[in-house]
Amino acid sequence: MIDELFDSDSAQATRVVVLFNEPVLALDHPDADSEHEIHYIVDAVAETLTKAGYDVQRLGVGRDPHTLIAGLTRLRPDVVFNLFEGLADFGSTEAHVAGVLEWIGVPFTGSPHQTLCLGRSKHLTKTLLQGAGLPTPGFFVVEELPAPACPLEWPVIVKPALQDSSVGLDQGSVVTTQPDLNERIAYLLNAYGPPVIVEQFIRGREINMAVIEAPELRVLAPSEILFVDADPGYWPIVTYDGKWKPGSRDYEATPPLYPATVTPRLCEKLTDLAGRAFRLLGCRDYARVDFRVRAGKPYILEVNPNPDFSPMAGLAGGLTSSGLTHDGFTVQIVEAALARGRKAGLGVALSSRPAVG
Element (H or E) spanning 266, and its range? Predict the structure, then answer.
């Protein structure tokens, strides 16, 4: 059992740096809510690892990239617990930070740089899925106006291709006419920049599959986002408000269900596709694969190689539904990263101890 790691004497001298992105948006920015949750996650991870006997340090990085190197040089970790999700207005920094860790030879939890690059780019991920024969809704990409005539059946859903956490998604994201499509694309290009992805809207169940390495690949029990608003004019989608604004109509309309109620046959399909998508993108330690299911057929919406690590989020729900604990898994992936470092001969990469103060 992974919780037995809490009793390991070998953890006593191990220094773990919990690396995270400092919020950079003004508090009144419409997307500010999603980035401030990171402090709660850092507190939860640090508490778990401290309880497990690790020497835990924290390193928040904002707009100045020198903070990363200077902080790692000062703290000299054996391993980094990577909670860096990218700056809210510069999302590709999520992958940049992993690349720096790889470059300087510090073992870290979570997916590698290349995988994070792919996962951040929804259109590239979907192209890979199509090439591998994995089912995903039809789509096309718009880099600039004027937008082409839509080749897909209506309705379609329009998303910023390089954002995550449902940024840029609201009830206006689903459109049914070319003029509305043109207007939505223009809005997203102005708000978030190119590219914009236009995707066939699949009306059906939304099911999430968390995938972990424990140490072998394991697909956890499915979870579901329920759509409980009966208004026929209200689109059943997971919006930004639905994720980040408790009390809003969108939030109340999309409660999660852990575990989802699915047939054995559907569970088998979802498990197979989630595992294949995890391997296709080169995910590591943990990831989440999001599906729409219509008439028993699953479609992969996206692969998230760096999902929310909160004890209250979907990954934690999948762990609990599968008989695991968030605390135990937190410790396990630290040990897995340390083992990768030993195998690669990394050791303490930033010079020998001590340091910190």
Answer: helix 264-281
pLDDT digits (tens, 9 = 90+) for 68-115: 999 999 999 999 999 999 888 887 899 999 999 999 999 999 999 999
Residue 50's pLDDT is: 97
Q: What pLDDT, on a 0 to 100 scale, did the predictor assign at position 214? A: 79
Taking the C-alpha atoms of residue 303 and residue 274, their distance in angstroms, rounded to an integer, is 9
What's the rounded Cα separation, in Å, for the pair 263 and 258?
A: 15
Does residue 51 sit in helix, strand or coil? helix
Distances (CA, A) of 19 to 59, 69, 285: 5, 12, 16
Domains and CATH numbers, the chain: 2-110+323-343 (3.40.50.2300), 119-135+203-304 (3.30.470.20), 139-200 (3.30.1490)
Cα 276 to Cα 134: distance, rounded to the nearest angstrom: 8
Give 186-224 as a DSSP string. HHHHHHH-S-EEEEE---SEEEEEEEEESSSEEEPPPEE
Q: What is the distance of C-alpha 278 from the center of its chain? A: 12
196-200 and 156-160: which strand pairing?
antiparallel
The residues that bridge with 225 in the sheet, in sequence order, are 206, 256
Return d(Cα 196, Cα 286) in angstroms, integer: 27
Amino acid 62 reads G
What region does 147 belong to: left with phi over 0, alpha with psi -120 to 50, or beta?
Answer: beta
Looking at the predicted structure, is the pLDDT value of residue 305 above 80?
Answer: yes
Q: Averaged over 53-72, what is the pLDDT?
A: 95
Token code pair at residue 203: 């009306």
Asked whether residue 249 carries a pLDDT value surpassing 70, the answer given is yes
Question: Over pLDDT 90: what percentage of the chain?
Answer: 83
